[in-house]
Amino acid sequence: MALIKWRDSYSVGVDKFDQEHMVLVELINEMFIIVRDKGEVSTLADAVEKLVDYTRVHFADEEEDLEKVNYPHLEEHKEIHADLLEQVLRFQARMDKEGEEMRTDLYKFLRDWLINHILDEDMKYSEYFKEDLEGVAAVSA
Ligand SMILES: [Fe+2]
Questions:
Q1: pLDDT in tens, 43-83
Q2: What is the pTM (predicted TM-score) of this model?
């Protein structure tokens, strides 16, 4: 297990969402440090809460902009968001019950959860933000 390092390949080509994904990565890394250093369960719980709150903000931002660009798979994307959030909330509930034992599980789960979210689902909307993409392509060329 290690900290997540942001990679260029994680970029969805939309600056705003790359920035938000980077914040999610930071929040998950904060959790990793708490788990690694065997911090208090309450500290971990606070970190998870921060992550849940920010995730809600991020998903709402994405849904709003996807609607603006008439993303054809918006409904499906919303369902995926709801499902992802639900999974985190379930973990949060488990943490309240099981505490210590599920720390590593939680971190691994969140790490995969985030990376899959960005790489599998968010990449699909990339091409619907063509104007932003051109700017990014020019910079990274
Ligand atoms: Fe996202």
A1: 988 998 999 999 999 999 999 999 999 999 999 999 999 99
A2: 0.84
Going from the Cα of 44 to the center of ligand 1, the distance in angstroms, rounded, reads 23
CATH class given for the domain over 14-135: mainly alpha
Using the mean position of ligand 1's atoms as its centre, give its distance from the Cα of residue 138 in Å. 23
Domains of the chain, residue spans: 14-135
Alpha carbon of 137 to ligand 1 centroid (Å)? 20
Cα(36) to ligand 1 centroid in Å equals 26
DSSP assignment of 25-64 = HHHHHHHHHHHHTT--HHHHHHHHHHHHHHHHHHHHHHHH
